[in-house]
Design brief:
This protein has about 525 residues and is α/β, with parallel strands linked by helices. The chain contains 14 helices and 15 strands. It has helices at about 5-20, 50-55, 60-70, 95-100, 165-185, 200-210, 220-240, 240-255, 260-280, 300-315, 370-380, 400-410, 445-470, 500-505, and strands at about 35, 45, 80-85, 85-90, 115, 130, 150-155, 185-190, 325-330, 335-340, 360, 390-395, 420-425, 510-515, 520-525. The strands form four sheets. Strands 6-5-8-7-12-13 form a six-stranded mixed sheet, with helices on both faces.
């Protein structure tokens, strides 16, 4: 069922009336129905009478009267009023508001639109499942005609580490993108690119062969316990040669699929994901376990990616005509991608002016973040079928994504039909005006931030309640002030609140006290 917005309905009715007055076909003249600038003038205004004065050779107020005479809006608003030189003021009726709000469809069981790629850490995903969200009230807005499949990469915390305040912006901004694009009709795939691979897990695996992995049953703060264990294990790694050798062997065992090593790693990942999910639920963020696509997932894809880069870009061969000029070369034993502009000049340079390559494999054979990101980008385009990729990270990663996108174009993975975007935001700064650093213990933990926010909000609510209880009851309101009697039985005053705010205040009493007689909120001054 189409749930058209009130302003669109008013525009259609006024357009028909104006057409009769002007003697033209409906739709030829813009009725100029706009939201009122001030609440005292109503909810909307029609300003077309002034522009028709010369054409119809009549005064604007006379034209406004003729428009009202032809108008059929009794089911939508109170009788229109002419103001000033010829403005027509419009106030939506209480009955129309109640009826309109009553037509809003109930949300479906899963109330947010979009799609998800399923699968846990390191597992092969199932095909994305669509969640269109068309059961929601669309406010008269049709879905996009040609929906695209969009991958949004956001949040991305690290396994075995607590989320901190720096994760807040990526998580919230990315979730907003997912909600809005899903509402518009796009097929959204959320990807939580968690850090779940690396040498640090060899240290933890070796440690947890000797003691149990912390759980919610044994510790109040599991991730804090794991972090404490890691710091202790790191000190032991640096002072105990035998432990260090065993930890390095555990890294190799994990990467080769050793059952014991993988079991310990999976326990660590599971406890971390539990903590992440708790944070997402507190923030009302839609990310779930099935959206996790960690670095480990791409482990088997790294070597093939490097091999494809070598084959396609050796000696400057371009995989895609007209794309960026790129070359694969080894530099001091490291495998690199060098990117050039159309004139053959390096696109990226170091501070000293030398070429800045994108390193995809170190001289010792280790892969880097760039390698994993290349594999992830290829997977999202080639296997998930996305034609738009959005990465939500802080602005410090701007250069990395410029190089990543340029390499993807040069390799032919991202053609003209694929949109690559890096949505940036600023960093959370400390007292020294520099970004907070987790490794130096400066970052505020996200859990602590949320706890403090809830505590302060609770104190404010208690203070507000004390203030309300100490005030005298509000005087009864006259019929003139009983403005928007919404379905809940109470609303807001005409004299001080536009209709959109009346609807908003119909869901809370925090903005003032309710009149004991009509239950209308009386605004605080």
């Amino acid at each position: 069922m189409k749930h058209e917005s009130p302003i669109n309905m008013l525009k259609a009715r006024f357009s028909a009336a104006v057409a009769k007055v002007a003697g033209v076909k409906a739709g030829q003249i813009d009725p100029q129905v706009r939201p009122a600038q001030e609440a005292r003038f109503g909810d909307y205004q029609c300003n077309v009478a002034m522009s028709l004065a010369k054409q119809l050779k009549a005064k604007p107020r006379e034209i406004a009267g003729r428009i009202i005479a032809e108008l059929d809006v009794a089911d939508l608003c109170e009788p229109p009023e002419i103001a000033g030189p010829g403005f027509i003021n419009i106030r939506l009726s209480n009955d129309a508001l109640s009826r309109h709000l009553g037509e809003v469809p109930a949300p479906p069981p899963e109330s947010e639109p979009g799609a998800r790629a399923t699968g846990a850490v390191g597992e092969q995903p199932e095909a994305p499942r669509s969640r269109s969200g068309f059961g929601l009230d669309r406010l008269g807005m049709p879905p996009v005609e040609k929906p695209r499949r969009v991958v949004i990469d956001y949040s991305s915390p690290n396994i075995a580490k607590q989320m901190h305040v720096g994760h807040l912006r990526s998580t919230i901004i990315g979730d907003v993108f997912a909600r809005v694009l899903g509402f518009e009709g796009y097929e959204v795939i959320r990807q939580n690119h968690v850090g779940d691979w690396g040498t640090q897990f060899g240290i933890l695996i070796e440690l947890y062969k000797q003691k149990p992995v912390p759980t919610v049953e044994t510790h109040d703060d599991v991730l804090q316990a794991i972090e404490d264990d890691y710091r202790a294990a790191q000190e032991r790694f640096e002072s105990d040669a035998a432990f260090a050798d065993a930890a390095r062997q555990s890294v190799g065992a994990l990467q080769s699929g050793d059952p014991e090593a993988r079991q310990v790693w999976e326990r660590i990942c599971a406890q971390s994901r539990h903590a992440f999910t708790d944070a997402y639920q507190r923030l009302n963020v839609l990310l779930q376990d099935e959206d996790v696509r960690g670095e480990s997932f791409y482990n088997e894809r790294l070597a093939p990616v490097v091999d494809e880069v070598r084959k396609k870009l050796t000696r400057g061969e371009q995989a895609r005509p007209g794309g960026p000029h790129a070359e694969y070369r080894e530099d001091q034993g490291a495998k690199c991608i060098f990117l050039y502009d159309e004139d053959g000049a390096p696109r990226f340079k170091k501070k000293d002016g030398d070429e800045l390559p994108m390193i995809i494999q170190k001289s010792d054979g280790a892969y880097l973040y760039a390698t994993t990101d290349l594999a992830a980008l290829r997977y999202r385009i080639k296997e998930l079928g996305a034609t738009r990729l959005i990465y939500v990270t802080d602005a410090r990663q701007k250069l990395h994504f410029q190089m990543l996108f340029a390499a993807a174009r040069a390799l032919g993975w991202a053609g003209d039909d694929v949109q690559l975007e890096h949505a940036t935001f600023g960093s959370v700064l400390g007292a020294n005006k520099k970004p907070l650093k987790t490794r130096e213990g400066e970052n505020v933990k996200l859990r602590e931030l949320l706890d403090e926010a809830e505590k302060r909000a609770y104190e404010l609510l208690k203070e507000r309640d004390r203030g309300i209880k100490g005030r005298k009851p509000a005087p009864s309101c006259s019929p003139r002030t009983r403005r928007a009697r919404l379905p809940g039985g109470w609303g807001s005053e005409r004299s001080s609140t536009p209709i959109w705010r009346a609807i908003a205040t119909a869901t809370t009493s925090s903005t003032g006290t309710r009149c004991w007689r009509c239950r209308a909120i009386r605004r605080r001054t």
